[in-house]
Amino acid sequence: MNYEQLVDATEDLCKFGGYNLAEEPHPDFASFVNLAYNQLSSEVEYNWEEFSFSTVVGQAEYTDTGTFDLTPNWIRITDLWWGDSTPIVQTDLATLRKIDYLWKQASNAQSWMWIPIEPGVIRLFPPPSSVATINGFGSRAKGPLTTGQIPTFPSKFHDALPLRAAWLILRRNATGTSYQRAVAYRDEANEIIGKFKTEVQDQKAVIFQRRVSRQPAERLLLSGQYPWVW
Question: How far apart are the first and last CA of the chain?
Fold first, then answer.
């Protein structure tokens, strides 16, 4: 289904669920479809993307302002590289303190560790001593959809979006049998999303099993690097 079809399906479900469209103002069905899309992609984590940003000498912390869109769509960042091939290792504050108790006062150098400071903020350690490109990889929520667009996941799972969107609308004011129908929408959406999540996890597991089952000589690339597994 495309964007318009998803919106129409959501409106039909709400009508069947007992929503009185004579009431004003009408809910913004399109916004709820996109909210459902964001929730689904966050729960399933089917979408993985690369990103990059440039360092500033002496600047340790980076946010979405002027660098890259860390919030609200990045679910998790799994990897950072200094340039194309030098990994920057993720750590936590407790480990960083053990390495350097005065970590906030560290002298500029090539960064080799990073920590998530708060939602939307990462910190490089030590602060970079030169301008370089940081490449990253992680899972990102999708959306919003616009006119004519189709969700970027298999169509067999598309019904989850209007079902979830209808639940998000009806849960606010539905009562009695209408609320029961809304709960049924929620449960059906969750069942579809659960199947999608299982399928994605199974696919990742198969890829991982194939990689780890190979002999070392088969995994070795001409460059001397190993293929990345996520």
Answer: 29
